[in-house]
Amino acid sequence: MTADDPERIEPRTLKGFRDYLPGQMIPRERIIDTARRVYRSYGFAPIDTPALEHLDVLTGKGGGETEKQLYKFQDAGGRWVGMRFDLTVPLARFAAQHLAELGTPFKRYHIATVWRGENVQRGRYREFMQADFDTIGTLSTAADVETALVIHDLFLALGFSEFTIRVNNRQVLTGLLQRLDLAGKAVEILRAIDKLGKMGPEKVQAEIVEVAGATADQAARVLSMVSLKGENGEVLRQLDGLVEGSETGQQGVSRLRDLLAAAIAAGVPKERIRLDVSIARGLDYYTGTIYETFLTALPGIGSVCSGGRYDNLAALFTSQQLPGVGASLGLDRLLAAMEELSMLPKSATPADVFIPFFDATRLHDYLRLAASLRQAGLGVELYPDPKKLGQQLSYADRRGFRFAVIVGGDEFAGGTCQLKDLADRSTATVSIAESVRPLVEEIRRRKSA
RNA sequence: GUGGCUGUAGCUCAGUUGGUUAGAGCGCCAGACUGUGGCUCUGGAUGUCGAGGGUUCGAGUCCCUUCAGCCACCCCA
User: pLDDT tens digits for A157-186?
Assistant: First the structure.
């Protein structure tokens, strides 16, 4: 093939779809591992579902926005199929289909790729990964609390200390709207409220009047509630007054009060979990607690972990009432955030130890050494060509290896090796005559130091 | 889907009113240094100027289309 070969195909990826190089994939896998570990530590069990579903499963009763973003096509057999655009709808189908054998309460996590044909932006792609966890089959506030605790543990485990889980409860707003006779326009009003951070109160109020047909006075009252600021306890007290006379509203406030108290009792610092009456979440199926997680250093990127409680997950598929609560970690958005915050290590190798192929006649010895280090649990890469040592070390340095174990003629003769710490350029002579154990211990010691 | 900005070497960019063989820095490869990587010096390779079409004697430079990226709307992870 030549450069002007007309048959040559340009290598490229679809808009919004990306390749992941080792430098990106290593931290990505680390986030996945962390999420998995935290979810499992609470007893959430892994599941998976197909990427493709029957189209009607995904579209359900039809919803404007998601339907527009849905990737759909006819398969070879003429069936209409769609690619999942979130993990909640597949969970609903899954629950309706298998819950009889699983029983409730059922806690699952699901880390998988989803697809949305929407316009791309920083941290927003057409193919991205979500890491969901949900507890279904219970109405208990305990599950709501646990959801917040999982989010909290997760972000700590990921290396964040500056973040805020904002919580709210749909029932509070619903209660207020009932009192204002605006209950029928809840969806439009919620959507307007969701824009509060971006547009400011005046425009939101105008939108409520315009889109929901509310009077200026009604809109002002919605705004006054949604604009409540201050300590969690203070806001709760004010909400008590605002929802007075609405059973739903009172229940919402009461659940928020319980949730916050329990989360703080469980060790979440109060600055990391805040009642924020303005968060509403676009999705209409949330009926109770709502969660959004913001990074203090990067509020502009939006929520990196969102979720909430729903009354009836699988109404579309079964008459069985399935309440639940859960949240979704936006892995790719989070990764974009971490990259921007320089939280990603630059290493492009998953291994700790580099062994230069130094003495061209000793391949077998190098292979043996590498094997015994691996057996001790270390990741080891042996360079494939006996090039000059400087070049090999330069390669190791670029890749981000931490250690080089150098063994040449002198070392073979003396039964030793040189352990070189690429980070601080120091070297130490370690005996490997009897066993590699001293070497392994030295590496471990330096790693944890 | 709508609107704005951008697209030149692996990366960041320069490229004069359209004018012959398209440049820099960084990176990469090699050597100086036949057993030790971040410095220095020397040499070297690399471009369908995002793609396609048009205007022109002549286009990286102008026009149209298209693709991709960034930003806003929208929505959301």
Answer: 998 989 999 999 989 888 888 887 777 777
Pair (A213, A153) in one structural domain: yes
Nucleotides on strand B with an atom closer than 7 A to protein CB? Answer: 1-3, 28-31, 33-38, 48, 67-77
**Through-space separation of residue A402 CA and nucleotide B37 C1' in angstroms:** 12
Answer whether residue A345 is part of any domain: no
Q: What ipTM score was computed for the predicted complex, to two decimals?
A: 0.84
Q: Which A residues 315-334 have CB within 7 Å of strand B?
A: 328, 330, 332-334
Same domain, A305 and A426: no
A414-417 CB contacts, 8 Å cutoff, 24+ apart: A417/A369
Q: Does A153 reside within a domain?
A: yes
A45 CA → B46 C1’, Å = 51
